[in-house]
């Protein structure tokens, strides 16, 4: 009687441990393989974007991918330019416009 | 003893057989609906039928951008058509378009299915990271995508540097393949989201039942997943076909149709004839060929979509 109770209490913990349960272990392996494959695809999809990021921080940006001569000038120009001003104005109009 | 069955009278006093004459399994038409539909019809005619009809008319004239026929132009009958039939650049442009569109469809659907089925199984942080990257690639405007792919595939670009051959110029060596890959890269996110949503809607009981009956993973894909996803796949194929056929800006930014005519898809060739060689009428005719090809895909899409709704 007591042995049975112990067994039913033990089984769930045994099932949770991957090493004890071949089904759970297979699921873990499958998850890891899927994650690794996905990460490889992620690197492939990210590779073309390298230039987009590196060139934006580069003071001597060209078409080639290289370690940037670090600068924030491009971002400062974009933030100070008429583009952001127009966006701010547009949002202002939108907020005033949407008042009840 | 004979029992005569008389039709029961209805509330409005007509017998049932009389009502049976009105078919209820077909769409009925009332002429008064024309009046109510006329504003929408007017918009369709003004914004859609008249411009397309005018473009078709222009295709059969001798209108040019500059020169005497820019002012005094007129109907020339089938003259442009005979020119089109003997135009080898147009024939090669058709083949280039076919490769570009079919390659994009195969690439986008395969990558979309593969990524979405992997996403279902992967760990949560990988799902968010890789899914995010692929969706960002999809959301990028065609101009930016073209510029990033141009920078990545020319000499000293990211692909050359990462594979250890910094001076390899992939874009010059395999222009059509690279341009198709760039298109696949920028549209896979869409297919991944749509196919992923459909995959998540497949009840797991069906897949479990297939596993219980000892079906291999290929059999589960072929016999269970594929039939259930067929409407989704069809919709994705047709949408990707239409988007790729009209993807002018990506190729224009990357190669402008060159080198030679290696990546000269129909929209680019139409633009070149109309605005670089000044043959507006001939460019319009090539555009019309494109409209016909696109409308075949469009009609197919509408038919598939309406079949799914009923």
Would you mind describing this structure in some detail?
The complex is a heterodimer of chains A (100) and B (310). With 100 residues, chain A is mainly α. Helices cover 72% and strands 0% of the residues of chain A. The longest helix of chain A has 25 residues, at 22-46. The radius of gyration of chain A is 28 Å and the shape is flat. Chain A starts with a helix and ends with a helix. Residues 1-12 of chain A have low confidence and may be disordered. Chain B has 310 residues and is mostly helical. Chain B has helices at 16-20, 32-58, 79-85, 88-121, 124-139, 142-153, 158-162, 170-173, 175-200, 204-212, 217-245, 248-254, 266-276, 280-309. Chain B is flat and about 75 Å long. The model of chain B has no long low-confidence stretch (mean pLDDT 85).
Defining traits:
heterodimer; A: 100 residues; mainly alpha; 5 helices; flat; disordered N terminus; B: 310 residues; 14 helices; 72% helix; 0% strand
In short:
The complex is a heterodimer of chains A (100) and B (310). Chain A is mainly alpha-helical and 100 residues long. Chain A has helices at residues 2-16, 22-46, 49-56, 73-80, 82-97.
């Amino acid at each position: 009687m007591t042995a049975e109770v112990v067994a039913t209490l033990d089984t769930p913990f045994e099932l949770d441990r991957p090493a004890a349960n071949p089904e759970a272990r297979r699921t873990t392996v499958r998850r890891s393989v899927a994650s690794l494959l996905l990460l490889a695809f992620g690197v492939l999809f990210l590779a073309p974007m390298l230039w987009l990021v590196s060139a934006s921080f580069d003071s001597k940006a060209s078409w080639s991918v290289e370690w940037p001569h670090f600068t924030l000038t491009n971002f400062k120009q974009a933030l100070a330019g008429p583009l952001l001003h127009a966006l701010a104005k547009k949002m202002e109009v939108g907020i005033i416009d949407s008042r009840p | 003893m004979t029992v005569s069955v008389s039709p029961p009278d209805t509330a409005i006093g007509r017998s049932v057989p009389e009502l049976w004459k009105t078919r209820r399994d077909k769409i009925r038409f009332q002429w008064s609906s024309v009046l109510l539909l006329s504003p929408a019809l007017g918009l369709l005619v003004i914004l859609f039928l008249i411009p397309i009809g005018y473009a078709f008319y222009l295709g059969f004239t001798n209108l040019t951008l500059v020169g005497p026929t820019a002012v005094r132009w007129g109907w020339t009958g089938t003259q442009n058509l005979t020119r089109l039939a003997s135009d080898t650049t147009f024939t090669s442009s058709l083949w280039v378009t076919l490769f570009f569109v079919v390659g994009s469809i195969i690439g986008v659907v395969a990558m979309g299915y593969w990524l979405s089925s992997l996403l279902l199984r992967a760990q949560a942080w990988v799902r968010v990271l890789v899914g995010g990257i692929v969706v960002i690639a999809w959301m990028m405007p065609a101009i930016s995508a073209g510029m990033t792919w141009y920078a990545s595939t020319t000499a000293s670009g990211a692909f050359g540097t990462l594979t250890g051959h910094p001076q390899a110029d992939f874009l010059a060596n395999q222009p059509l393949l690279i341009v198709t890959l760039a298109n696949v890269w920028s549209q896979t996110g869409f297919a991944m989201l749509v196919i992923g949503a459909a995959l998540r809607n497949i009840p797991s009981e069906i897949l479990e039942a297939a596993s219980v009956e000892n079906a291999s993973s290929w059999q589960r894909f072929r016999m269970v997943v594929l039939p259930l996803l067929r409407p989704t796949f069809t919709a994705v194929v047709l949408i990707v076909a239409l988007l790729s056929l009209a993807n002018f800006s990506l190729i224009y930014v990357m190669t402008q149709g060159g080198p030679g005519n290696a990546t000269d898809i129909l929209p680019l060739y139409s633009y070149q004839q109309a605005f670089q060689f000044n043959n507006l009428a001939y460019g319009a005719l090539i555009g019309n060929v494109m409209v016909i090809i696109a409308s075949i895909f469009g009609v197919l899409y509408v038919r598939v979509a309406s079949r799914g709704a009923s």
